[in-house]
Amino acid sequence: MAFWSSTSVFTTKVPRKVLFMFTLSLSVTYLFYSLMSCYNSLQFPLQENYVYQGRLVTEETTFVTLREKLYSASQGFTEFTEAERSTAVSTVKDHNAEAEQRTVEWIRTQAAPTNSAALAAAYHTTALEREHQEFSTTDSELRVNCTSDYGEKKLPQAIIIGVKKGGTRALLEALRVHPDVRAVGNEPHFFDRNYEKGLDWYRDLMPSTLEGQITMEKTPSYFVTNHAPKRIHSMARDIKLIIVVRNPVTRAISDYTQTLSKKPEIPTFEVLAFKNRTLGLIDASWSALRIGIYALHLETWMQYFPLSQMHFVSGERLIVDPAGEMAKVQDFLGLKRIVTDKHFYFNKTKGFPCLKKPEDSSTPRCLGKSKGRTHPKIDPDVIRRLQKFYKPFNMMFYQMTGQNFEWELEIDSESRSSRD
């Protein structure tokens, strides 16, 4: 009774019109905050869901179409230095970080209702720009960015194990044009110099690969390293091995030419090649000559691997018919024949084939200055004696491999023997 009495007194002293306005203002305020609550509970999750779904669709689509894009990229060749690759990757990371920062700022300012529509539109534009950037990535960028972001690092399924100055770099660069080949550019030297660092260290050097791609590396010194066959066999018994061989006399001169460019003070080729030139005693302990005794080194490898897991590439034929040699290598690796004659052109200045760049580039891709050096003039008598020295070893090598490389035939010194 006391409550109703006090209420009656209050209503009699306060005008009804004022009371009505007060009640109405409370109702409007309540309605306004209710609407704001609905806005924040409904609109923001939708925007967040948009971000998530947009990113998901972008990544899945990129993954699905990556292989097709890589195949189209194989129509031309693009090579990147380590510095260019690092710059490209860091640029993409910076762009992604900037986009994420914009997202955080948008979330923080979402509570301001007067700017929400403008901010949502701005973020929508940013998301679309990011999506467009991912979809409009060029084929050459795909080889650097997308492939490295997807897949996993694996131990090599194939290795170019030799030989030095045989044409291994040219072969590797041609293979890297293939979209299903991912290879390390530098020589890891794991099985001859860095074995104590372990397989995890070795695997971390490899590029990331997608399903169906082959991981490769090349280190020519493996072929003449006695413990390399056993170590590689312990890693993978079914690994595929590629050996690029070249006329051992020409290879030795090329090897000497490379050393001479770094150490001009070394003795002449003729002095290093003989223990006693008067007696005609060849110094087979000199590494430039010892590498060319292919049969001796192959015998060690055959203790661990069958010939069916080895493929021998002719360094001479790789120069005169690169597409033909590449067809055999792709067959050996179980790859589709994508790298063909349309990827090569002959550089008369260098004296060997070069890879063509994509259509949107003005310059082709040739091997560096260390390739194509002019050989020093060697006494023809020294060359004849070396050919006689190598002949029985060459015959043994032909018999072991079942291939005749025809190194005993006279080779035109200008077109095929005078270049590094």
Q: How would you explain this protein's 3D organization?
A:
The chain is of the alpha/beta class. It is about 55% helix and about 10% strand. The protein contains 17 helices and 11 strands. The strands form 4 sheets. A 5-stranded parallel beta sheet has the order 3-5-2-6-9. Strands 1-4 form a two-stranded antiparallel ribbon. A hairpin with a 4-residue loop joins β7 (about 275) and β8. It is elongated, with a radius of gyration of 35 Å.
Q: What gyration radius follows from the Cα positions, in whole Å?
A: 35 Å
Q: What is the number of beta strands? A: 11
Low-pLDDT segments: 38-89, 106-148, 411-418
* Rounded average pLDDT: 74
Range of helix content: 40-55%
Note the gap between the termini: 115 Å
Give the SSE string: HHHHHHEEHEHEEHEHHEEHHEHHEEHH
* Strand residue percentage: 5-15%
Number of helices: 17
The general outline is elongated
Task: Give the SSE map.
Blueprint: H1 2-13, H2 16-73, H3 82-108, H4 116-135, H5 139-144, H6 146-149, E1 152-153, E2 158-162, H7 168-175, E3 181-183, H8 199-205, E4 208-209, E5 214-218, H9 228-235, E6 240-245, H10 248-262, H11 269-273, E7 274-276, E8 281-282, H12 287-290, H13 294-301, E9 310-314, H14 315-320, H15 322-332, E10 344-347, E11 352-355, H16 380-401, H17 413-417
Parallel strand pairs: 2-5, 2-6, 3-5, 6-9
Antiparallel strand pairs: 1-4, 7-8, 10-11
